[in-house]
Specification:
Elements lengths: L1 H5 L10 E2 L2 E2 L11 H4 L3 H16 L22 H9 L6 E3 L4 H7 L8 H25 L8 H22 L3 E2 L14 E2 L1 H18 L15 H13 L1 H5 L4 H9 L18 H4 L12 E5 L11 H7 L20 E3 L1 H4 L11 E2 L19 E2 L22 E5 H13 L7 H11 L10 H11 L6 H7 L33 H6 L12
Antiparallel strand pairs: 1-2, 3-7, 4-5, 6-10, 8-9
Helix pairs in contact: 3-6, 3-7, 4-6, 6-7, 7-8, 7-9, 8-9, 9-11, 11-15, 15-16, 15-17
Length: about 525
């Protein structure tokens, strides 16, 4: 952790871009100190762009070279690939046939304090926070005039709270450092989950109410704005009972109301080949700014990675599936849906995007054989008009991290839990209507949880949802190979949180392990 926070890679790649920011300056701190590297406005733009790029790639030297953290190869250690391993592969969504103990332990909920899948994502979160802290620190100390200084700092803070949300949700009690942290002989102190909740809440409120951050639905595509921050705060409130033992559904509903004027469901298909829902997961989904609140941008030629949507497309295609039909050269043959997940979709649901014809059935009779289990093909590297992406070797599909459909489903959950003004049933039914399903007549926990599963599959919220509904570790809901058993079994409740990696405990005496894991 100390290394991650101290050693910040300003920018190395020469072709990556996010929105209207481009990394085009060699700012390697191993070669240049800040006073030599940050001499022009463009240098600060590059430093800000490197934070965004840290979500999109593994490093700054291509898809698999020079990863920003060590432990896994560059492709496997990418932020949103690692996030899915912890938040999707651990659930009823998917299993993976690869003979990889990291993969197997995730789905069987049997990880340890030294598992690299856990530690690599932990360090990726810390690294991103460190990048944000460094930008804020350097921008505040800039001796040249930065024309958009206040806005750029607000963007870095917004990206930082996004990481802190992953930190509080996955690890709970995190080592804490902000731009004021002074690197010394000891690592940062640990912040409790409750205090981290208060910090994230305070930062989000300040960004929404008193900062120069782009407004709701405003700013260049792919840049942080108040809509993105509102979703972070809403997620924080939605899970408040898990994080701090207090329900904050009314606060969640109030925050979500601020999104209504700027965003809407994408209901008109951009072309004739795919549905409006599928538009959100195609190679030109940057057209869907009506619904996509904040994306992680990908471009097969300029900003490519073996994580993000390249992982979600290539990893979920294999066997006899025609890879060209999905805009790629060949599949990796790894991930399939569990039968429980497949059966959650009704016939006629436009979100039922499975390939079963080329598989040997929906049951997983052989865990190590890709052909057992339904292949889930939500992300497709083809444009909405059927046109080709920039390349079939990487994905052009942006990862829609926050969508308005999620906000509508959160409204339904808020209403079920007593919030007023959420218009929850109508919100949920709008999502169902887009999927081609009839309206529900009332709200129930099972309906909301199932609707979230169908709508938000592969988008990284399933574990958090199952934890919130008391179904992640308990035996009240089982799925194939949960807990390592073929038909599933419950596990100890402490696995609702991941452990602090043993390496960070060894390096920083200020840290204490999460309950249930050996220190």
């Amino acid at each position: 952790m100390k290394y991650i926070l101290a050693s910040v890679v300003f920018a190395l790649g020469l072709s990556s871009c996010v929105g209207d920011l481009t990394i085009d300056a060699p700012l390697d701190p191993n070669l240049n100190t800040a006073d030599k590297a940050l001499t022009k406005v463009e240098d600060y733009e590059s430093l800000l762009a490197s934070i965004y790029t840290g979500f999109a790639t593994s490093g700054y030297e291509g898809a698999n070279s020079g990863p920003s953290i060590s432990g896994l190869d560059g492709g496997a250690s990418q932020y949103y690939r690692g996030r899915y391993h912890l938040n999707g592969l651990t659930t009823d969504e998917t299993v993976c046939c690869w003979n990889d103990q990291v993969i197997l332990k995730m789905h069987s909920l049997d990880w340890t304090t030294e598992d690299v899948a856990v530690s690599s994502f932990y360090y990726r979160v810390c690294h991103q926070i460190g990048l944000s802290n460094e930008f804020i620190r350097q921008a505040n100390a800039a001796v040249i005039e930065l024309p958009e200084k206040a806005r750029w700092i607000a963007e870095a803070r917004a990206l930082r709270v996004l990481c802190w949300l992953d930190g509080i949700d996955n690890f709970g009690n995190m080592p804490f450092a902000d731009e004021n942290f002074v690197i010394g002989s000891t690592g940062p102190a640990q912040i409790s989950r409750a205090d981290l909740f208060n910090y994230i809440e305070s930062e989000c409120k300040d960004l929404l109410e008193g900062s120069d951050l782009y407004g709701y639905g405003e700013g260049p595509y792919g840049r942080a704005n108040k809509g993105m921050v509102a979703m972070v705060l809403a997620k924080l409130y939605l899970n408040a009972e898990v994080y701090i033992g207090q329900k904050k559904y009314q606060e969640c509903a109030d925050v979500l109301a601020g999104l209504d004027a700027a965003y809407s469901l994408h209901t008109q298909a951009n072309g004739s080949k795919y549905s409006a829902f599928q538009d959100l997961f195609l190679a030109d989904n940057e057209k869907c700014t009506d619904e996509i609140i904040f994306p992680i941008e990908q471009h097969g030629l300029n900003t490519n990675s073996y994580g993000v949507t390249t992982f979600f497309i290539f990893g979920f295609i294999g066997g006899d599936m025609p890879a060209a039909d999905y805009g790629i050269s060949s599949g990796w043959g790894g991930y399939r849906a569990t039968p429980e997940f497949y059966n959650r979709f009704e016939d006629g649901d436009l979100r039922k995007l499975f390939d079963t014809e080329n598989q040997l059935g929906i049951t997983i009779d052989d865990y190590s054989n890709f052909k057992y289990g339904a292949a889930f093909v939500k992300f497709v590297n083809i444009k909405s008009d059927g046109g080709e992406a920039s390349t079939n070797g990487f994905s052009d599909v942006d990862y829609p991290l926050f969508r308005y459909a999620d906000a509508l489903l959160m409204k339904a959950e808020c209403e079920l839990n007593g919030a007023t003004g959420a218009n929850g049933l109508a919100s949920l039914n709008a999502v169902r209507a887009r999927a081609g399903l009839p309206a529900a007549t009332s709200l129930t926990e099972d309906l909301i949880l199932d609707e979230r599963a169908r709508e938000l599959a592969l988008e990284g919220w399933r574990r958090s949802d199952l934890v919130r509904f008391g179904k992640f570790t308990s035996d009240s809901y089982l799925w194939a190979y949960k807990g390592g058993a073929e038909n599933g079994q419950g596990v100890a409740a402490h696995r609702n949180l991941f452990p602090i990696p043993q390496g960070d405990l060894n390096a920083n005496a200020n840290l204490k392990q999460n309950d249930g894991y050996a220190n």
